[in-house]
Amino acid sequence: MGWLAGLAGGPLGLLAGPLLKLGKWALVILLVALALLGLERYVRNRGRLEAKLDGLEGTIKTIETRKRIEQRVKQMPEDEVEEWLLPPDQRRKR
């Protein structure tokens, strides 16, 4: 029966066959182990998603900052824009 379960379920099936012979406690242990593996995978994937979300939030803030700068530059006179683009130490003092 173990080899038949192995054919049906792959590696987990190979484990399930002999465990079924040991009784219901072995099956309970197998199910708990599978649940813990699923929980571990969930936690790992959640961490990855949170990292991606943090990256997206940074990108959004960068885009918002760029748009604010563009709006500010559009409202400036041209000579002031040229001065504003210079490094701070090269700008003339007001």
Brief account:
With 94 residues, the protein is an all-alpha fold. It has three helices and no strands.
User: Rg to the nearest angstrom?
Assistant: 31 Å
Give the amount of beta strand, in percent. Answer: under 5%
> What is the arithmetic mean of pLDDT?
79
Low-confidence stretches: none
Largest sheet: none
Helical amount: over 70%
The helix/strand series, from N terminus to C terminus, equals: HHH
Treating each run of at least 4 consecutive H or I residues as one helix, how many helices? 3
Overall number of domains = 1
Molecular shape: rod-shaped
Based on the model shown, name its key terms.
rod-shaped; mainly alpha; 94 residues
Textual characterization of the structure:
86% of the residues lie in helices and 0% in strands. It is mainly alpha-helical and 94 residues long. It has one domain. The longest helix is centred in the middle third of the chain and has 52 residues, at 24-75. It is rod-shaped, with a radius of gyration of 31 Å.
List the helices and strands and how they pair.
Elements: H1 2-22, H2 24-75, H3 78-85
Helix pairs in contact: 1-2
